[in-house]
Amino acid sequence: MSTRDLVRQARSQLFPTVAVQPSGLRTKLSDNRPTANALTRNQYSDIALQGALSYEIDLWGQVRRTIEAARENAQASAGELENVNLSLHSELAVNYFSLRGLDLQKQLLDSTVIDFERALELTNIRFRGGVSSAVDVSLAQTQLDSARAQAIDTGVQRAQLEHAIAVLTGQAASTFSIPPSPLAALPPQIPLGLPSELLERRPDIAAAERSVAAANAQIGIAIAAYYPQISLSAAGGLESGAIGTVLNGSSALWSVAGSAFETVVDGGRRRAVTQQARDNYEATVASYRQNVLEAFQQVEDSLAALRILEQESVTQQAAVTSARRSVDLSTTRYKGGTTTYLEVLTAQSTALANERIAADLMTQRMIANVQLVKALGGGWDRTQLPKL
Fold it and tell me: Can you tell me the distance from the alpha carbon of 317 to that of 324, in angstroms, rounded to the nearest whole number?
């Protein structure tokens, strides 16, 4: 049964219950029964068209509180469902940007492999001319093979991310593929000061808030049990021994009744139920407060990550520029015969490491943006909760 059905079920208690009971009876009594006499008929018919109505008056708000609790629980369930949906979408986005980050790493490594192939060719030329040693050729070859291995290694991680995306989109991993496309776009600028009202867009916060309201309604239900239950009932219809006279006015029958029920002694059960409802409410409020604090923490963590990663990216880009300049200078010195290939090797390795760090920082910034969007509810807001 869905939570919407529970709301409808609770709301039905506001209305009276109406039942109809048509019946027909043909009876043959024993001629030898102890009460038999000549004036009593041994066979007769009884045809009745009857209806009944019963209604419990909601004087103390028990039914209204029950409806309120069911409605709030239904909205809490809708918020929890939306939170799961948001988590899956954010996981999909993280996997996607991580995959594009690997495409950027692969592009960088492929470009580096081309540069290292040229460096190896230059070293071989110098070796054949007697300018460089076999050690330089071996170092150049080792560096090239290492770059090729790193480029191949990105394929393993990319395949795993591709398969994870396939599962999240409901497709078979064996037939799913995403064409390579290096991450190029810069993360959007996020204002550092965000109003706390944005947290109301989080579905988990809305669900926790609705749970608090439902727990409060349960207290009202428990308190209503202290008061008497008042019920009204009515029955009426037509009854006759012959079908031809069923609809006559003289065949009418009816009854009206009212009753009240009050528990006098219950051994403290109602008190215990009420206290349990109050304790559950306090626990729910505490959980709601904790969820809000965690939401603030997640937003602040994401904002701090974006701010720090942006500063780190600027500094790292300066390091990449310096490393590339070092490679150019070392290569020029090596061509001029004023240094060994070891200096070129060191400069190239440093440049590659810094460029990979810069690419990784770009991926981290995109992921931090996804996490911030998730922390702010992903564009969802409480107005999207079902109106029940």
Answer: 11
